[in-house]
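TA notes. Do not distribute before section.
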Amino acid sequence: MFYEFQGFKPVVKESAFVHQSAVIIGNVLIGEKVYIGPGAVIRGDWGQIIIEDGCNVQENCVVHMFPGVSIRLEEGAHVGHGAIIHGANLGRNVLIGMNAVIMDRSTVGAGSIVGALSFVKADTQIPERSLVVGNPARIIKEVSDTMLNWKSKGTELYQELPGELYASLKECEPLAEEEANRPKQEKLFQTWNEQQGG
């Protein structure tokens, strides 16, 4: 669902995918190959939200801010299921873990990883390539090349997902029984394992 607010209409690039159950309000700019999952709420009612190319904002995430603040999710930022970004900026190729909360005026530096369920307090400035965990969140080490490569490969899957969804996603009635010739998804799993070196 897209909503105009105080004359501002969301802008969504053609290669982005926004699920029909997501809610996008007002001054929101969504770039190329962005994935916005079901149940996500992106409220650009009190300030501008820029979601740059290749980002993903997964299921049930919230992106919002205090009045008069504009925020940016830089290219390749990856926001895991249920996370909240409130008035914070995310650097390039950042990973925000599931159900993490990033509070106002905080900045997560490029290449950083914030662990699931972490709470990043307001005004926190996280340097580039930091691994951050806990409540309150703290830096425990630097993100290694191996970790950053793992993150980047996962984000690439989400960058490919919009095209795959446009090609094959459609409403349907569920089946009462599994088909005898139901295909396997092992190819995707094999690809992921190969990308991880496993």
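Switch to the second chain here.
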Amino acid sequence: MPEPLLRPGAELLTPRRLLELDRQHVWHPYAPMPGRRDPLVVASASGVRLRLAEPAHGTSELVDGMSSWWAALHGYNHPVLNEAARAQLDRMSHVMFGGLTHEPAVRLAARLVEITPEGLEHVFLADSGSVSVEVAVKMCLQYWRSSGRPEKRRLLTWRGGYHGDTWTPMSVCDPDGGMHSLWSGVLPEQVFADAPPPGFDAEPDPVYEAHLRELVERHAHEVAAVIVEPVVQNAGGMRFHSPGYLRLLRRLCDEHDVLLVFDEIATGFGRTGALFAADHADVTPDVLCLGKALTGGYLTMAAALCTPRVADGISRGEVPVLAHGPTFMGNPLAAAVACASVDLLLGQDWQAEVKRIETGLRNGLAEAAGVPGVRDVRVLGAIGVVQLDAPLDAAGMAAATEAAVREGVWLRPFGDLVYTMPPFVTDDEDLALICRAVRAAAEAAGGKRA
């Protein structure tokens, strides 16, 4: 039997030993097993900086341009969030949510109802963003089954979307260009509209509006819900679209008795310049999914909020309960940190901070438009995107990442994108550094595209 690595009094593992064990045992996201490239070992993090256990490409500290996959809204090691976690640890770290309740979860649910679009009154706390989408879909399917219309069990979405890696969310990710095309023919077959025309500030296209209208009308008898990422399609391609299409979807769903779900796991909590992307359209969905930045990146937690119509409809059914109950649902530690994170965000002029970051990204990324191989540069809120003219292969992604690291910045390019979603606490100097790194990554990707 191997000697335990975490026994009391054991010495800290060296970076080299960590990487050996990582290569043998740890399966990283979207990577082969065993790994073919060593990840960077992070020893600690504070503010917007990741401190490496060993220098990489001449630097031992990286500015995080990714907010840890868009979750670390306030950066790292924030004293307010640290204190919230410590205080809750002294009370209880976890208690089952079935038949019990506690202050952190109740306070969080009430706070989310207060700040989300009006009409969302009921909160189901889940483990992760993908699970919140599963819960949202289950709500919609059970609503129609409880209403005596079990034939309404398909979902309608548009191409270019991404909703998570668990089973049902995979079925509404882009069916061709998405990461889950491997499962075509196995996943439930959903109804797909064309991707929305690009441009947040663009006027809605009447031809596309007619396309949406025809599709909803034709499939309303079998569709339980329309599910989309409002305003920004994130991991499916970082595309921006007009809020006008959200208003149209709300009207169409109302007219044809279809529920509307907004997946705001990536866009919630100010990332697009509005507190929630739905606010750009002044639209309330029937179900809203939140995650990622909910706890400021400290702990995994998500939420699916719904209207009384949905909750009441389920409660009137043959099975009058939502048949879902994660073990760590409503985890007190995560809920306490989430409350602190929301209060921290709303207790400052977050709109001004996001606007400052938006201005810095527009100015700093403008020169990237002239880089050979760059197809488009776009910015919305605290999101900056450089799109290449072809997808990166493995060598191109590695070259782009290494170029950013040489500049002292952590980025995670994918597909044909080099992008950044920095923490809101990123100052102007570090923001300029991130922009230089994005340009360097785009330049390094030249000639290495698939």
